[in-house]
Amino acid sequence: MDFPIETKRHSYAHLLAQAVKNIYSKEVKLAFWPDTDTWFYYDFDFWDIIIWEEDLKNIEKNLKQLIKQNQRFIRIDKNENWEKFSKDEAIKILKDIKEDYKIEHVNDLFDKYWSSIEISFYENKNQKDEQTFIDLCEWPHVDNSNKLDPNAVKLEKIAWAYWKWDSNNKMLTRIYWLAFDTKEELDSHLKMIEEAKKRDHRILWKKLKLFTLSEKVWAWLPLIQPAWMIVRKAIEDYLWELHKNHWYERVWTPHLAKEDLYITSGHAGHYLEDMFVVHGWTSKEKFHLKPMNCPHHMQIFWDNQFSYRDMPVRYFEPATVYRDEKTGQLSGLTRVRSITQDDWHLFCRVSQIKDEVKLITDIIKEFYTTMWLINDYWVSLSVRWEDKSKYLGSDEVWQQAEWALEEAAIANKLPYKKVEWEAAFYWPKLDFMFKDCIGREWQLATIQCDFNLPNRFELSFKNEEWVDEKPVVIHRAISGSLERFMWILIEHFAWAFPLWLSPRQVCIVPVAPNFYDDAYKLKDLLKKEGILVSVDDSSDSFSKKIRNWEIEKNNYLIVLWEEEVKNNSISLRDVRRKTQENLSFDDFIKKLKNEINLKSL
Fold first, then answer.
1. Is 3.30.930.10 the CATH classification of the domain at 206-255+291-493?
2. Is residue 243 annotated as part of the catalytic site, yes or no?
3. CATH number of 506-598
4. What H or E segment, with its residue span, contains residue 521?
5. Which of the residues 87, 125, 270, 323 is marked catalytic?
6. pTM of the model as a whole
C-alpha cells in the first residue's frame, strides 16, 4: 500500500523528534510541527543546549537510521471501542512523558474546541516490539517506516521562534526540513530553492532601493520608493482597466471605524485580537484601524435604495488595511502590518452568482496570462470542516453558499477540488492557485460567496414584486495583497520586468563626456513620450556602465556616440534578449509604445 505524502510527512515528524531525543537526551521538550505542501518545521526546547546548522547532519543521519529500523507506528487508543481521551486522561499521559508544551497545547485545544476535539497518541515500536517513542498526534501514519524513503528527506536549516509566536514566551529552536515521495522529487525541489535564493526579494529590494523599513515609522509598515511605486501603480491601473467596462464603480472608505461596525459584521467576536486599537485624545472614543474593507462597503450599499434592475452593484477600492501580524511571522513583503488589497465587492441576486463568477474568472485568467502565471493552475473550493462552532452563520446559509460556489465552479469548468478546513470563518471561497516560473505554488486570486453579511447589516433591494430581497455579496480579489503579489512578481521575473511594468525602461549611456548634452536632449524627448529614462554620466568606464545597468535590469540601453548623434539614430541594446539593433528615433518610439500597449513579455 502506498501512502499519501501528507501521511508520510507526519510519520517523518515523529522520527525527527525521536532522533533529536536520542541525541540530545530525553529532557528535550517537543512543541509544534505544522506542515505545508513541501516542508515542515518542528519547534524544540533544548533547555541550555544550543544547536547550529552544522548539527543537522548528525540529526539527519540518526533520522535515516531510524527509518531503516522498520519501526511500526501504532495508535494508542483509550480502549477497544476507540473512545476519546478526556482532557485529564490526555494530560496524565503527557505528564508521564514530561511533555510540558504538549500539555499546554491540549489545554488550548479543549478551551477552543472542547465539544469536538479528539485526542490521540501514536507510539513507535521496533522489530523487538519495544516502545521507542510516543507523541501526541491526531493524524494517520504509515504502518511501518519501511514505507518511507530515507533519501527523500532532508533537514534544511535552523531558526528560532517564540512559543505560540508570543515574545513574552520562551524562545524555541526551530528545525526546518523537507520530505517527498522520492529522492528525485527532493532533488528537484532543492534546485528550485537554489534558484529562489538568487531571486530573493529581500536581497533585491535592498540592492535596488525598492522600499524602506523605518523603525521611526514602525517596522513592517513599508515605505515605497519611487521605482517600486511605478510598478505598483502599473498593476493598479491594469486592474482597473480590466474592470472599468464591466460596470464597476470606485469607492473610498476611511482607515478606521468604531468597534460597533465590527460587532455588527461579526469580526469583533473572531478577529479582534488581530486588530489595532486607536484612542482619540479629543473625542475620547475608541476606534479600530480597519483590517478589511467589506464592513465599510456594506454601509455604502445600505445607504442607497436599489431595485432588481440595479443588480449587480459592483464596488472597487484599492485600499490599505492594517493587521497586527505576529512579530515572528513578519518578513520582507511576505507578511507586513499594512496591506493594500485590490478589494472588490459586488452585490447580486442568487440567480446571478454563476454569471458573476464567470466574469470574475475571465478577468483572473486574463490578468494572470499577462503576468505569465497562468500555466498549471487549479482552484481550491475552501469549505468548512465538521466542527461548525468556529464559523459565523447558520448551516443553511453555509450550505447555500458552498453549493452556489461549487455550481459556479462546475458551470465555468474550473479545475477545482474541495478542501475542508480552508474556509474563512465567515464564508466559503474559491482560491486560485498559480505556479511561478520556478515551480512554486501561490494562492493568489480569490472569490468568496457571502450570505452572512447582508443578513447582519440588514441589506436589501426591491424585487419585481416590490418586496425586499436580500442580496448575496461576492468578495473577490484578483492580486490579493499588493505587497505580497509584488514580492512574488520580483522573484517571478527576477526583477527583469516586462516593459509595461518596468520602473527602469531605458538608460542612455554616452561613451564620452562630449556626448552628455546630446544624451540629456534625447532624455527630454523620451520623457515627453512617456518613457521612463535615465542618463549614466558617471565617471565609471564605459564597460562598467553597461554592466551596472544590465545588473539593474533596464529593459533597453541606448549607446550614444558620434555616429548616432550625426545620423539622429538609436543604437539599441535589449538587455533581456541580449540583442542589438540600430533604428530611427520614430521607429524606436513606435517599438516601445507597441510593446507597452500589448503588455508583451
1. yes
2. no
3. 3.40.50.800
4. helix 516-528
5. 323
6. 0.74
